């Protein structure tokens, strides 16, 4: 199963590289990996730390820099070749990566950044089992506060812990706990939009029947099949590690695919800094 997954990912990367001069067609690329566009983009992001859009942008600007340095083609022609509508938008993106303008890239001895092509390698770990259970859960409603952020340059991994810290200080967590159907707090990754590189993260509680969440945002989570993974250790390090293992080890080794619904972190009451703290990760799945 893992070898088959590795081959499919390689074929998808090959297709991306062969089409760097074309507009990104995520449907076609995901098809090469035999997966849905959402699952492919989520897997790619978790495995590389970059969105597909960010990776292709950096690769295009690497190839554009090489072409500027080695040819006499016009800047406008190169900008259009790699998908930029104007020299201004190309120059802005180019400067962000290389620190210089496209025209300066032609200066003798100038330093340019080269972002290499990604390759995936099979890692046979097998030294640690990964426990999980499959749960069928009916639709339910949550209430809390949310924050929309970008996944670009892994900004979300810095903003989410801050969001939790701020919510502790301003009393939001205590208010959510008082409305919840149980003592557990939830962290939900909602509205994941790989194409725009945005994500909405919500700190919430599952609502008790008949309770009004005045002043709080509510969301209904659809009925789904969930793969539930236990997590032990201090937060956020332990739960980030579990997420990595889910996408690096569990998905490639199973016949499941991400269902495209919210991902849920379940935090029971307790000392989240303790080495013995126990929580869970709920991933919505479908059988391929």
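^ structure tokens above, recovered residues below v
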């Amino acid at each position: 199963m893992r070898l088959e997954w590795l081959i499919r990912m390689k074929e998808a990367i090959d297709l991306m590289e062969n089409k760097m001069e074309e507009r990104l067609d995520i449907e076609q690329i995901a098809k090469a990996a035999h997966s849905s566009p959402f699952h492919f983009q989520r897997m790619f992001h978790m495995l590389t730390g970059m969105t597909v859009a960010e990776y292709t942008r950096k690769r295009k600007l690497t190839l554009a820099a090489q072409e500027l340095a080695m040819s006499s083609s016009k800047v406008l022609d190169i900008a259009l070749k790699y998908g930029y509508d104007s020299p201004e938008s190309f120059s802005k993106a180019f400067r962000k990566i290389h620190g210089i303008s496209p025209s300066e890239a032609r200066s003798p001895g100038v330093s340019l950044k080269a972002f290499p092509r990604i390759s995936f390698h099979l890692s046979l770990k097998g030294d640690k089992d990964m426990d999980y259970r499959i749960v069928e859960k009916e639709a339910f409603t949550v209430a809390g506060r949310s924050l929309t952020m970008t996944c670009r340059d892994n900004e979300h991994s810095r903003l989410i812990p801050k969001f939790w810290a701020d919510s502790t200080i301003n009393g939001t967590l205590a208010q959510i706990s008082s409305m919840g159907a149980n003592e557990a707090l939830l962290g939900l990754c909602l509205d994941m939009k790989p194409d725009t590189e945005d994500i909405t993260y919500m700190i919430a509680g599952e609502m008790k029947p008949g309770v009004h969440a005045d002043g709080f945002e509510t969301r209904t989570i659809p009925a789904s099949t969930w793969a539930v993974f236990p997590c032990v250790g201090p937060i956020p390090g332990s739960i980030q590690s579990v997420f990595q293992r889910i996408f690096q080890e569990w998905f490639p080794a199973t016949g499941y695919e991400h269902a495209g619904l919210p991902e849920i972190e379940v935090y029971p009451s307790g000392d989240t800094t303790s080495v013995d703290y126990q929580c869970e990760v709920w991933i919505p799945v479908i059988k391929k």
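The chain has a mean pLDDT of 90.
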